[in-house]
Every structure is written in structure tokens, then in C-alpha cells.
């Protein structure tokens, strides 16, 4: 499935049959308990604003001194990192671009809402600042109070050092290693011929609702909020990728797709509102060099979005597309108060598509995946996989005041994915449609370019 490694972003597997190193790409090696290490790199990072898509929040925590976060031209901007569990923080290093903050605070929080300053200055000088601090919390935030220039504020790197006593060490509990682990890849940065589209669809029906989540609460039936499952019909709290692969045909047009997809159940009052008919799950390129996208590795799983996100955080997530839509209304961060009669409530949200090559899952179900920055995968997540984009349509309209998800308000929307594709089928669709720069349906057929043929036959099977 994977060819030789190189500058095109293609992974490299060990050629001598030996096991590759298990230290996570771009992360420091394990340290003895109690020793401060870099704990912010590749952690989920969001910001109050960003100047453009090429200067998103993640550029400040990706370990790459050629990428950065840059805010809009405003005071009182912030950059927030989620450690996933309570951290003890002893040092912060700020590597400013020319547009720095002269006044700022370093703050910590246990819940992402209530903040406590652990460092304050009104005389910042820019450059590289190393700050000795003492604090703890699940979250750390840079909060700027004054800009030194007329521009926004911009950081090449934001680095927090400390310890995460409750966090599993890489390779420990909660980490599922890829087999083989993939090393030696560099992010693809080519410029292939322009193509307007590079995608295909997985058209899958909703099959059942259940309070289960085999990724977040494996083996614990009833532990989750209610989820609506699409695709595979057997998904429950104890489901594994092997179970999915051996299951009866799924409710997807392509029989080769036995993957499980799920999201929080939508309710109107106390009545569940499930999507009707095949839903659109796009498989797209998330990087500029669409020819370098590779199929998902068998057994990959991840969570997209955050059920605990605030409205602001939901909007600032890299996967946000156009928010909630109904009728002519779009860009809604929350479910609209009303929708025209006869319309449906739509939501689109994109998944991270850059993989670190080492793990099929991690304890937070996110850290092994990352979003591309300015069309290129980060160095610590160099392998470009298909970018999922959920496009869900819920048959509900009129008065929407009682419409909500099982996880909360509209901005709690998120989804999960567990890969169980037939690998040759997935490879054919990725090669023909994504790498080929086509706008394909579930057969891998671009109706606007019929001469290109289809990846699958009329039964949605490999020819």
C-alpha cells in the first residue's frame, strides 16, 4: 500500500523487516517521571482569530519554525493549547515574529472558561522570550493586551514545558501502533496541474441510534450520549475494525466500505431526527499536492471536533466549513431559530487528514491526526490521507427552538470514524478520483468527464 519514502510525502516502511522507532514524530522522547519536557507540541490548538488560513493557530505548536500563527489586527487576542489532562507547567518559550505583543499574560485553566494568570508583562520586547512560570491546568493560553505594531500578533512557536502526570506515555495504554509503523516521510509540497475537484463520495445511510461509542468508551455500552450510526449496521460499544470487516454488507453504496461513521443524535424536543436516505461523506484532498494523498491505513480511527466546544471554538476549528444551513441561511454557528418549511437542516464539517504514521489511535483519539497548514501537512504528521467531510441533512424545519444534539447545542457537533474499507477498493477510488483530480460519485465516476471512466463497476465493485 505504501511505496518508498521521499519528498513526495509517501511513507517509508522498514526495508529490513525490523520494527521502526516508536517515538512519536516531532515529539520529545519519553522522560523520567517528574522531568519537565515539551508538552504543547502537536496538542489541539485554537485561537481567537487568524489573519488567513495560512496562519492558523496550529502553526504555533507544530514544531516547525517556518509556519506561524498570525492574528487579525486587533488587541486582546489569544492562543489556547489543550493538554488533554492536567499539566504542571514550569516554563514557556515564545518565539515571536516581528509582530509581537508588548503586553500579554500567560494563563492556565482547568475547564477552558475560568483563567488564572501565571505570568504578566506590559514591557514585552519580542524575539524569543523564555519565561519561568509555575502553574497547572488542562489548558494554557497566551492572552495579549497590547500590540507592539499596527499589525496583529504573530508567533512562530509557542512552547510550554512541564509534566503531564496523568498522560499515558507514547506506546503505552491508549496508543494503538500501526503495523508497520511508517517512518521517513516528509510532507508533500508539490504543485501538480490545477484541478478544480479531487474527491469521491461515500453515500451511506443512517442505520441505528445507540448510547455507545466504541472509540471513546470501548466496551462500555450506554456510557455515551446518544449517537446516530451510519454505514456499518453492527456498530456498538464493543465494535473493533475486525468486527466491521467481517460484518454483513453495510448501508453504503460501495460494498467495499464497511467503515463505521457516527455523530451525536439530533433531537426535536425529545424525538430523534435521523437523516433520511444516503448521506454524503466526501473523501477529498486536504493538501495542495492532491497526487500525494494515500488511502487510510487499515484500522485507523479518530474523533473530529469537540462536544465541549464553545460557539467561538466551534467556529475557529480548522474543520469548520459553512456552519449550519437551511433555506438561504448559512454560516450559522448554532442551529438556527427557524428554518423555512420544506427545507432541511444541513451541516458540513471537515476532518484532519495528516497522519503521523505511527498510531492508529491515541488516548485523546486526535493527536495522531492533524490538519494541513496552508495546503501542506505538518512535519510531525507528514502523511496525507483522504480528508473526510461530513455533509449531513436532517429532515426538520419550521420552529427550531427545541432542536438540539444529544451532546448539546449545535456547536457541540462532532463525529467519529473507524476505517474498515476493503483496501483495494479504497486504493482504486483514491487513485482514480483524488490523485486523478476528478469529482467522482460513489462509483468513482465523474459525470462531467465520462471519458475518464469509473473506478468501480455499476454494482460499485472493483471490475
Helix and strand layout, with pairings?
Elements: E1 37-38, E2 45-47, E3 69-70, E4 78-96, E5 101-109, E6 116-121, E7 128-147, E8 154-163, E9 176-177, E10 199-204, E11 206-210, E12 227-231, H1 241-245, E13 260-264, E14 266-268, E15 271-272, E16 279-284, E17 301-305, H2 311-316, E18 320-326, E19 329-332, E20 338-339, E21 345-350, E22 354-355, E23 359-361, E24 369-370, E25 383-384, E26 387-394, E27 398-399, E28 403-405, E29 414-418, H3 423-434
Antiparallel strand pairs: 1-8, 2-4, 3-8, 4-7, 4-8, 5-6, 5-7, 9-23, 10-16, 11-12, 12-13, 13-29, 14-15, 14-28, 16-26, 17-29, 18-19, 18-21, 20-27, 21-26, 22-24, 22-25
Question: What does this protein look like?
Answer:
The protein is built from 3 helices and 29 strands. The chain has 463 residues and is mainly beta. The chain has 2 domains: 37-163, Jelly Rolls (Sandwich), CATH 2.60.120.260; 199-452, no CATH class. The strands form 7 sheets. Strands 1, 2, 3, 4, 5, 6, 7 and 8 form an 8-stranded antiparallel beta sheet that branches. Strands 10-16-26-21-18-19 form a 6-stranded antiparallel beta sheet. A hairpin with a 6-residue loop joins strand 5 and strand 6. It is globular. Mean pLDDT is 90; it is low at 1-34.
Amino acid at each position: 500500500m505504501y511505496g518508498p519514502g521521499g519528498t513526495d510525502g509517501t511513507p517509508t516502511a522498514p526495508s529490513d523487516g525490523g520494527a521502526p522507532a516508536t517515538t512519536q514524530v516531532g515529539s520529545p522522547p519519553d522522560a523520567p517521571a517528574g522531568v519537565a519536557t515539551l508538552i504543547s507540541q502537536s496538542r489541539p490548538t485554537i485561537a481567537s482569530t487568524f489573519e488567513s488560513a495560512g496562519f492558523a493557530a496550529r502553526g504555533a505548536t507544530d514544531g516547525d519554525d517556518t509556519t506561524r500563527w498570525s492574528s487579525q489586527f486587533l488587541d486582546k487576542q489569544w492562543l489556547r493549547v489543550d493538554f488533554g489532562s492536567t499539566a504542571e507547567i514550569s516554563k514557556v518559550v515564545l518565539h515571536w515574529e516581528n509582530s509581537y505583543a508588548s503586553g500579554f499574560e500567560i494563563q492556565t485553566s482547568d475547564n477552558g472558561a475560568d483563567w488564572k494568570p501565571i505570568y504578566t508583562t506590559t514591557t514585552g520586547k519580542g524575539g524569543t522570550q523564555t519565561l519561568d512560570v509555575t502553574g497547572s491546568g488542562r489548558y494554557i493560553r497566551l492572552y495579549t493586551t497590547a500590540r507592539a505594531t499596527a499589525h496583529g500578533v504573530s508567533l512562530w512557536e509557542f512552547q510550554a514545558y512541564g509534566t503531564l502526570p496523568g498522560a499515558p506515555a507514547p506506546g503505552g495504554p491508549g496508543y494503538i501502533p500501526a503495523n508497520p509503523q511508517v517512518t521517513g516521510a516528509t510532507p508533500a509540497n508539490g504543485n501538480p496541474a490545477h484541478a478544480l475537484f479531487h474527491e469521491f463520495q461515500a453515500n451511506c445511510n443512517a442505520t441505528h441510534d445507540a448510547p455507545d461509542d466504541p472509540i471513546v468508551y470501548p466496551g462500555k455500552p450506554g456510557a455515551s450520549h446518544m449517537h446516530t450510526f451510519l454505514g456499518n449496521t453492527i456498530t456498538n460499544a464493543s465494535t473493533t475494525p475486525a468486527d466491521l470487516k467481517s460484518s454483513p454488507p453495510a448501508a453504503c453504496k460501495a460494498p467495499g466500505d464497511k467503515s463505521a461513521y457516527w455523530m451525536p443524535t439530533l433531537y426535536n424536543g425529545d424525538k430523534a431526527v435521523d437523516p433520511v436516505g444516503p448521506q454524503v461523506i466526501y473523501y477529498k484532498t486536504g493538501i495542495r499536492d492532491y497526487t500525494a494523498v494515500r488511502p487510510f491505513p487499515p484500522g485507523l480511527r479518530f474523533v473530529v471536533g469537540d462536544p465541549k466546544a464553545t460557539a467561538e471554538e466551534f467556529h475557529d476549528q480548522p474543520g469548520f466549513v459553512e456552519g449550519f444551513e437551511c433555506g438561504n441561511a448559512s454560516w450559522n454557528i448554532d442551529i438556527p431559530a427557524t428554518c423555512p418549511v420544506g427545507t432541511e437542516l444541513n451541516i458540513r464539517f471537515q476532518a484532519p487528514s495528516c497522519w503521523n504514521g505511527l498510531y492508529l489511535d491515541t488516548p485523546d483519539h486526535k493527536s495522531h491526526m492533524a490538519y494541513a497548514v496552508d495546503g501542506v501537512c505538518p512535519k510531525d504528521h507528514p502523511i496525507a490521507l483522504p480528508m473526510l467531510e461530513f455533509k449531513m441533512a436532517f429532515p426538520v424545519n419550521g420552529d427550531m427552538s427545541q432542536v438540539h444534539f444529544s451532546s448539546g447545542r449545535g456547536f457541540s457537533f462532532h463525529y467519529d470514524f473507524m476505517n474498515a474499507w476493503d483496501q483495494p477498493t479504497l486504493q482504486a477510488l483514491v487513485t482514480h478520483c483524488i490523485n486523478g483530480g476528478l469529482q467522482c460519485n460513489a462509483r468513482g465516476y465523474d459525470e462531467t468527464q465520462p471519458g475518464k471512466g469509473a473506478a468501480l463497476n455499476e454494482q460499485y465493485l472493483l471490475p
